[in-house]
Specification:
There is one protein chain. By secondary structure, the protein is α+β, with helices and mostly antiparallel strands. It is built from 17 helices and 22 strands. The protein has helices spanning 6-26, 36-42, 77-90, 148-156, 173-178, 233-236, 268-271, 282-289, 328-331, 335-347, 353-370, 380-384, 408-428, 490-504, 531-540, 558-569, 578-583; strands at 31-33, 51-58, 65-73, 93-97, 118-122, 130-135, 138-143, 160-161, 206-215, 220-227, 244-251, 253-254, 257-263, 291-296, 304-310, 319-320, 375-379, 395-396, 399-403, 438-444, 475-483, 510-514. Strands 13, 14, 15, 16, 17, 18, 19, 20, 21 and 22 form a ten-stranded mixed beta sheet that branches. It has a five-stranded mixed beta sheet with strand order 1-2-3-5-4, with helices on one face. Helix 1 (6-26) packs across helix 10, helix 10 (335-347) runs antiparallel to helix 11 (353-370) and helix 13 (408-428) runs antiparallel to helix 14. The protein is globular and about 65 Å long.
Length: 587
């Protein structure tokens, strides 16, 4: 038998090393219970009875890490209040931690030292309760540490559901609401929404929430509940980690069975064509079904298109699915894909990006056929959730382009043409900054009337907040470009894309807002670093104070109103972080 060469052994080790790293990330936060004596010495006066431990923090892609950070797991809202008041007295900051499924440093920045005065509040250990709050209309009470999969499974058991949701089920309810998480859905032609359903963000479903906020009369932080009609609550519906929410009540509706058809036979040229033609465009599928997603592998021509449609009865050609995550070929890397990724990451063979794109597309085509998942049907949860923690971890930028429904195809044609041209130009000079997919989704905006609450307003900081000065804008096009961490020239490429989006969609026929949980504000070297975007472009995208109606709160911009509320509810900055300090600078 031939002995493997050293190069073969190194290649195998590289792939195994990469997969082990991915497995470690997928395993979730690691923690070590604290020795009571050591804890008392380092955290004097910490509330008795609250579980305390040292923890490692890892964001989704592993680019932001912190080891040995103090963390705790309050049993309920009252213990959370005690923790926050302790932190205020000690001069510490408090950061809620759920599943850590995010990219931006809203929770902790990279390089946080073990001795930093930062306390993670783990919501996933105790704040996970789920109960039906009411049936007519339907509402559910949820602890913010419950996962979306747990929530949707619970709702399904009661004949309830949501219109759309993010693909990963591991997200926590609190984390999803903090960054206005969303799915992909607009009304199909002739479709009327069911009561309790929204085409906007999950934040738009909130009826009430309980949060730890400052009370001047008590000279302490207290637990307070805000109804959807409360002005201060509008800033907490999407708070970016600038608050600690312990529990929410969500408006929900009757569950619907969905059919999801996957196609890989439509070219990007046809799907993203200029508007006005009669081809099979992305917009035509929106009209037909309303729920569409395109996943476009780099340096390939045929995207993976998913089209969901409401189907009360199983279509004859559909396979019934009784659980989520029905694309196992995307949950774990096939060997050829893993080998390519291993070479790129460990050997710097970034020039393999076109080969990787073709390999991923091929794996999708074969996988859809082998698993009979190209046409599936079942309760909404089982087709909406499809990303497991074991999937390939990649970095991503993120933007929502607000526009009118009849402009969606134009936005896609303009964006994909620019993306394709720049990717080709980079490759011509030997640079391959993108080795992951382009992901395109389309959703409606936040319509507070779906809650049925009189006086309800849209979340102030949701990217899907309507512009009062542009009532014709009823749709958002979500754009993400993914690439492996450490890919050379990625930040410069992302900066060019960002400048294109901000310059092209600047309030004329469309407007760009950032997707909070992803990458944005790029310099040539890093994300979340461009001062003009952080201090100017982002706040301005929420400035509709010149409009009428539910716009800017008595003449103020939505951004200005949110800043005032969040500062008042946390005047001591207990919930601040370095990125939030740049977004919301104190006087």
């Amino acid at each position: 038998m031939n002995k493997p060469s050293k190069s073969d052994a190194r290649a195998a080790w590289s792939r195994r090393g990469f997969l082990l790293t991915a497995a470690t990330l997928a395993a979730g936060p690691q923690f070590v219970l604290a020795d009571p004596a050591a804890a008392a010495a380092e955290l004097p006066g910490f509330p008795e009875g609250v579980e305390l431990y040292r923890s490692a923090y890892r964001n989704w892609v592993g680019e932001i890490t912190a080891d040995g950070v103090w963390a705790c797991a309050p049993a309920d809202g009252n213990e959370a209040v005690a923790v926050v008041n302790w932190a205020r007295r000690q001069g510490w900051t408090v950061r809620a931690r759920g599943a850590s499924h995010g990219w931006s440093p809203l929770t902790v920045p990279a390089g946080t030292e073990p001795g930093a005065p930062v306390l993670l509040v783990d919501t996933t250990r105790n704040l996970t309760g789920l109960t039906i709050e009411s049936t007519e209309p339907a509402a559910v009470r949820a602890g913010t540490g419950a996962t979306l999969e747990a929530l949707l499974t619970f709702l399904e058991g009661h004949g309830l559901g949501v219109t759309a949701a993010p693909a990963p089920g591991v997200l926590t309810v609190g984390g999803a609401l903090a960054v206005d998480a969303h799915g992909t859905s607009v009304p199909a032609r002739g479709e009327r929404p069911l009561p309790g359903h929204t085409y906007g963000s999950l934040s738009n479903l909130v009826l009430s929430l309980s949060a730890v906020v400052w009370d001047a009369d008590s000279d302490a932080y207290v637990l307070r509940t805000y109804g959807r009609g409360d002005t201060d609550g509008t800033a907490l519906l999407t708070h970016l980690g600038r608050a600690l929410v312990t529990e929410v009540v969500l408006r929900v509706g009757a569950d619907t069975s969905l059919r999801c058809v996957s196609r890989t036979d439509l070219s990007a040229a046809e799907l993203f064509a200029e508007p006005g033609g009669d081809g099979r465009t992305f917009a035509s599928f929106l009209d037909e079904a309303g729920r569409v997603e395109a996943i476009w592998f780099p340096f390939t021509e045929f995207p993976w298109l998913k089209v969901w449609s409401v189907a009360p009865q199983r279509p004859l050609t559909s396979r019934q699915v009784t659980s989520p995550y029905n694309y196992p070929f995307s949950d774990s890397m096939p060997t050829p894909v893993a080998d390519l990724v291993g070479r790129m990451v460990t050997e710097g063979a970034w020039y393999l990006a076109p080969v990787l794109g073709e390999a991923q597309f091929g794996a999708a085509v074969l996988g859809l056929a082998a698993t009979r998942s190209a046409d599936i049907w079942g309760p909404s949860k089982n087709t909406l959730l499809y990303v497991r923690p074991t999937t390939l971890r990649v970095g991503t930028n993120g933007y929502a382009v607000l526009t009118s429904r009849d402009q969606v195809q134009r936005v896609l044609a303009e964006f994909t043409a620019f993306y394709r041209e720049r990717l080709t130009a980079y490759a011509a000079r030997g640079s391959f900054p993108v080795n992951g997919t382009v992901e395109i989704r389309v959703s409606g905006l936040d319509d507070p009337s779906v809650t049925g609450v009189e006086g309800a307003r849209a979340p102030l900081l949701s990217a899907l907040r309507p512009r009062a000065d542009r009532p014709e804008w009823d749709t958002a096009v979500w754009l993400n470009v993914l690439t492996l961490p450490g890919t050379p020239d990625a930040e410069a490429f992302y900066r060019e894309l960002e400048r294109f989006l901000l310059g092209t969609y600047d309030g004329g026929h469309a407007l760009t807002r950032v997707e909070w949980s992803k990458g944005w504000a790029y310099t040539d070297a890093a994300a979340w670093s461009d001062g003009d975007v952080l201090g100017g472009v982002v706040p301005a995208s929420f400035d509709d104070s010149g409009g009428a109606g539910d716009g800017g709160g008595g003449g103020r911009s939505a951004w200005g109103e949110a800043v005032e509320i969040l500062d008042r509810l946390d005047p001591h900055g207990v919930f601040r972080s370095p990125l939030l300090d740049r977004l919301f600078p104190q006087d």
